[in-house]
Specification:
The chain has one domain. It has three helices and five strands. Helix 2 links the parallel strand 1 and strand 2.
C-alpha cells in the first residue's frame, strides 16, 4: 500500500513539473516574453549565460505574487530577449530577513 501511495505522489509531482511551459526568451521580443508570462501566469525561461559560455541558465518567472509559494515575494528580474539585453520580468524569492536584521542592528556607524 505504501508503494502505491508513493508512486501516486511521484506521478503527481512529475505531472506538475511537466505542466509549466518552457521558453527561450532570446528567440522572442521583450513584449512577447512579458505577454507569454501574463498569458500562462508562470513559465520557465531558459537561455545561455553571457558570462560563462555554454552554461544554460533558467528560472521560473511569474505574472503576479499569486503564483509564488507561501513565504515568497515577487521580485524584479531581467532576462535577455531578441530585442534587448535586459527585459524586465518577475520571479519569486524568499525575502532575506536575516541580512536586513544584521544591517539594521549590527552595523557600526
Amino acid at each position: 500500500m505504501k508503494t502505491i501511495l508513493l508512486a501516486a505522489c511521484l506521478t503527481l509531482v512529475a505531472a506538475e513539473a511537466q505542466a509549466i511551459s518552457r521558453y527561450d526568451p532570446t528567440r522572442m521580443s521583450c513584449g512577447r516574453v512579458q505577454s507569454t508570462i501574463a498569458r500562462h501566469g508562470a513559465v520557465i525561461l531558459r537561455y545561455q549565460s553571457t558570462r560563462v559560455p555554454g552554461l544554460p541558465l533558467y528560472d521560473r518567472y511569474v505574472q503576479s505574487e499569486q503564483f509564488c509559494t507561501m513565504g515568497e515575494v515577487r521580485t524584479r528580474a531581467y532576462v535577455p530577449s531578441a530585442d534587448t539585453k535586459s527585459c524586465p520580468v518577475y520571479t519569486c524569492k524568499r525575502p532575506d530577513y536575516d541580512r536586513h536584521f544584521r544591517r539594521r542592528f549590527f552595523h557600526n556607524d
